[in-house]
Design brief:
- With 254 residues, the chain is α/β, with parallel strands linked by helices.
- The chain is built from twelve helices and nine strands.
- The protein has a nine-stranded parallel β-sheet.
- Helix 6 packs parallel to helix 7 and helix 11 packs antiparallel against helix 12.
- The mean pLDDT is 91.
Amino acid sequence: MSKISDVFKNKKAFIAYLMGGDPNLAKTKEYILALAGAGADIIEIGMPFSDPIAEGEVIQAANLRAFASGATLDGLFGMTVSLKGEVAVPLMFMGYLNPIFNYGYDRFFARCAECGVCGVIIADLPFEEQGEVLEYSDRHGVELITLVAPTSAERVARVAKNAMGFVYLVSSLGVTGARSEITTDIGALVAEIRRYTDTPVAVGFGVHSPEQARRIRGQADGVIVGSAIVEIIREYGENAAGELERYVREMTEG
């Protein structure tokens, strides 16, 4: 069992996302420690990109703030390696293929392994095209997390059978961002995934309230929250740590 899937043993996981470098890398490190201390079980670190096609307005703006602060992939690697010995929860990167391709697949995944990054989510990498990346992620022991959407239909079986770490179930059509209501039949999608794999299923895109977390808890193995956390960082800037801790405690209690 992997370090990522270990998190789901005998509990429901809360997975927190924040943008690396927003408002700067020093604060990203501080906020990762705050999220972990408040109860986050896995932390996804966004890799800034100029064309984040799966993101809504909140995370698009966070990409721009990260670029303005001078964030780079090398900077993110330096920040994550500085967390060794300070944070016990698994750390992951989430982003898009272009920066990874430009950095070099072998170099990128080797640095992930060196810096303690356990997994990577590449939002715009189709399952059918993962082969060119898997060669390098497997070589360096970094898990490539796959996504299932409400429109995946017959592809669910293929994606689920090859899943590692956890299956990222996209709750709603469209881009990231808090939603007042999630109308997708999460239970039916989770049941379909579980026909083909025992890999845990975590639900993201739109989740932001304790009430939503409670509903998903009864249907899936974990919940992923991004935009709500990024919005707290936007509002409080360099003073967001306390608010992040309060929010995560509220969500994990939920």
